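Lab notebook: predicted structure, single chain.

Context: the supervisor wants predicted structures on file for every construct in the current expression panel, including those that have not yet been purified. This is the next one on the list. No modifications to the sequence; it matches the entry in the shared construct table.
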Amino acid sequence: MGSNAGNPTSSPVTALGGRLLQLVGDRDAARFSREISRVCTELHPRGGRPAYSDVLAWVVDATVGVIIARLGAAGPEETLILDVRFADGRYVDGEALPKSERWVLRTVSAFLAEDVVAGERSLTAAEQFDIALRAEILADALIWLDFVLDVDLPDPPDIAAA
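Prediction complete. Output recorded below exactly as produced.
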């Protein structure tokens, strides 16, 4: 699935990721902004607080997991490809997206295509961005996760068992 870099399914990471996702769902912009800022500015978190890289990896893993759970995993010799469309059906041009959204699309797409090397490289690169871009990436990744949790996706196709 995703990266699991630095064990992002650990309890503190899961708790913080879940709290951030809840703030997105609650549309609590003030608390969401404070929490995102704290995660992105603490280069060496103390007191067991998770690092930015672990929280971001958790969000990406969760997004990939939700998409696979909702649509089904790719079969042998198949690859999942993420196409994003507007409500009217037109395709979203990934290159036209803001840098943070483009990062989310590319990183999730890499893991869906099982290109773990590209996905891990993208996660590592995100740690090197300036604080503002790191915050935008984490915020956008959480918003995308909230969206895929809420979007009405078709049930996976029935697969005949061998």
